[in-house]
Design brief:
By secondary structure, the chain is α/β, with parallel strands linked by helices. 46% of the residues lie in helices and 16% in strands. The protein is built from 27 helices and 22 strands.
């Protein structure tokens, strides 16, 4: 394996501007550069991507990166291109021509990282081109997806072994943020890792205070918590409809907020995300579609209005708080109806085989797909239209589609924003002749060449129709019309921007009556879901043990001592140190009665030996109404 001239430290400095790696990034990179297979478990925000991106730049050839979400891949590509790193992506939203050119560039061009959705691995076009590539490294992101014991099983991940068969000597790194012991063993076995180096950071988040509250009026409790804890916040809700209604509720209470879910158009999602990241809006109310790949370190509060499906999901979402290492809160608000809803959901998670075949046949009819056709082909998919067309109950159809995904027949990308792309289909000489003969197209062609350079001749480039329109003083509609006309004349290949959910047929379409359903595997998946929901309910209901201890025990890690800052630990401290607790209360009330103080000023005057206990006393006084915050976050007496 040939290594090029730059060291990992030089690459980090040149492309990322950092002087040092975070532990254990440097050990992981050294492991890969020495040719070892590696399993890396780093918590959310732990800097997983650098662990394979840096060695990819240090080695000759292409790093193949398998990632489950198109949006996540495209975000990575965008960030890498900003750093002038040659990279590309292949996913189900691309045409055969786009895939063809991209793979050629990986063989003959300067591409250093190729991002790939797992469903593309088994396609003939990829396997043929892969054999011709110089591959430096294989990186499997979100590796828990390969395990049936994981919380987001993706059967297409089981095909990753195909790459190893073609390039058996190339090191492989599997990365995930959370994995139980069973999942780690599954990853090692199913990826055929050879004596892998294991690098695992503790799952403990010693700056996050985990809190569980039973609340009949969750909205009121949420509002009080948001008023007591300063700084950016995320509120997770279970439904898309709930994002808008909760954000409106907070607005009525004078709390700046916005909302986000996967069903919104790309531009709207991007705008709302930007408003929150730049602190124009304090609270983001969202479904679990929000958060992955979001780089915001100063989130002080993550509230869940209801129960996630699993502790893995909760750990990931709660872990989006406090990435800067400062004190943050993860608050789970629930009532008995939330417990019942999760129990019901897990019990209904296994639709019977007859219903699965009915849904599968419905898909075949919906897309007018002949038996044996459709393998690796993607279609726009409107779930609302589909369920309405065949009178399927939405909740049952949703569960059935998930089971068909887990069985490896289909894959659904909830909502994919496909940017406009363009590639010139003629050489420079032929283009020049066309321009002379067709003056009307001259401004458009010159604009494309100025904005996007020579790359448009060799690959598909992402373009902005509004930017082109602005430069040549024409409407966006006129630009799209001219581009379409040039496509028809075979001068260029053009894919306009679109916003579509995608359904990909992983296998050729079966006769629904002969669909090879493995009912034993489906039953096993249902049992796994039940186990996960039971673990989530246990975490929620238990009121004796340190929250972090319960969480870490689930991930097969022992916390050497109690965290000291979760609701259970603070309640225990309160009982054991009643004298200090009462002393803090008296001092706080006395000081703010003389003059309003900020929280920092109060702590500076009292100098409490236990910061966390002091903060909990403040919380209790606020809850009791003995003190209050004003709009400048100064503490007043009631």
């Amino acid at each position: 394996m040939a290594i090029i001239q730059y060291t990992p430290q030089e690459i980090l400095r040149k492309y990322w501007g950092y002087e040092h790696f975070r532990s254990p990034q440097d050990q992981i990179i050294s492991s890969l550069l020495s040719g070892k297979d590696t399993l890396a478990l780093l918590p959310t925000g732990g800097g997983k991507s650098i662990c394979y991106q840096v060695p990819a730049l240090a080695m000759e050839g292409v790093c193949i990166v398998i990632s489950p979400l198109i949006a996540l891949m495209e975000d990575q590509i965008q960030q890498l291109k900003k750093r002038n790193i040659e990279c590309a992506v292949i996913h189900s939203g691309m045409t055969k021509e786009q895939i063809d050119i991209t793979l050629d560039n990986c063989i003959y061009g300067k591409i250093k990282l190729l991002y790939l959705s797992p469903e593309r691995i088994e396609t003939e076009i990829f396997k043929i081109r892969l054999a011709k590539m110089t591959v430096s490294l294989i990186a499997v992101d979100e590796a828990h997806c390969i395990s049936e014991w994981g919380y987001d099983f993706r059967p297409a991940y089981l095909k990753i072994g195909t790459i190893r068969e073609i390039h058996p000597k190339v090191p492989l790194i599997a990365l995930t943020a959370s994995a139980t012991e069973r999942v780690k063993k599954d990853i090692t076995t199913k990826l055929n890792l050879r004596q892998p180096a294991l690098h695992q950071r503790s799952f403990s988040r010693d700056n996050i205070s985990f809190v569980v509250r039973k609340a009949e009026n969750k909205e009121a409790t949420m509002t009080e918590i948001l008023k007591r804890v300063n700084g950016p916040a995320i509120v997770y809700v279970r439904s898309r409809k709930g994002t808008k209604s909760i954000a409106a509720f907070l607005g009525q209470k004078g709390i700046s907020s916005t909302w986000y879910h996967a069903g919104m158009k790309f531009d709207e999602r991007a705008q709302r995300q930007e408003e929150w990241i730049t602190n124009k809006k304090r609270v983001m109310v969202a479904t679990n579609a929000f958060g992955m790949g979001i780089d915001k370190s100063d989130v002080r509060l993550v509230i869940h209005l209801g129960l996630p499906e699993s502790l893995e999901a909760y750990y990931q979402e709660a872990g989006r708080g406090g990435r800067d290492g400062k004190r943050s809160y993860a608050v789970l608000l629930y009532n008995e109806s939330d417990i019942t809803a999760l129990e019901t959901y897990s019990k209904e998670a296994l639709p019977d085989a007859e219903y699965l075949r009915k849904i599968y046949q419905g898909l075949a009819n919906h897309f007018q797909l002949a038996e044996g056709a459709g393998e690796a082909v993607s279609y726009p998919f409107d779930f609302e239209e589909f369920t309405s067309k065949f009178s399927f109950k939405k909740s049952q159809a949703h569960l059935a589609l998930r089971r068909l995904e887990e069985s490896g027949f289909i894959h659904i990308e909830d909502r994919h924003h496909k940017q406009a792309t363009l590639n010139l289909n003629v050489d420079k000489s032929r283009l020049y002749q066309f321009q002379i003969a067709n003056e009307d197209f001259e401004p458009l062609i010159q604009s494309i060449l100025r904005l996007y350079g020579a790359e448009v001749f060799s690959e598909f480039v992402t373009i902005s129709e509004p930017r082109i329109a602005q430069q040549i003083n024409r409407t966006i509609k006129e630009v799209k019309s001219q581009l379409q006309h040039l496509k028809e004349l075979k001068i260029l290949r053009y894919q306009p921007a679109s916003e579509i959910p995608l359904l990909t047929w992983i296998t050729p379409r079966w006769d629904a009556n002969r669909l090879p359903l493995n009912t034993a595997d489906l039953a096993k998946r249902a049992r796994i879901m039940t186990e996960k929901s039971e673990a989530m309910i246990h975490y929620t209901r238990q009121n004796k043990t340190c929250r972090q201890m319960v969480m870490l025990n689930y991930f097969n890690e022992k916390l050497p001592q109690k965290c000291g800052i979760c609701d259970r630990c603070l309640e225990e401290k309160k009982r054991k140190d009643k004298t200090r607790w009462n002393s803090f209360r008296e001092q706080i009330l006395t000081i703010v009665s003389q003059k309003p103080r900020s929280l920092d000023e109060l702590e500076s005057e009292i100098t409490p030996p236990d910061h966390h206990l002091f903060i909990e006393v403040i919380r209790e006084l606020l809850e009791e109404g003995e003190i209050r915050y004003d709009e400048f976050w100064l503490v007043h007496p009631k």
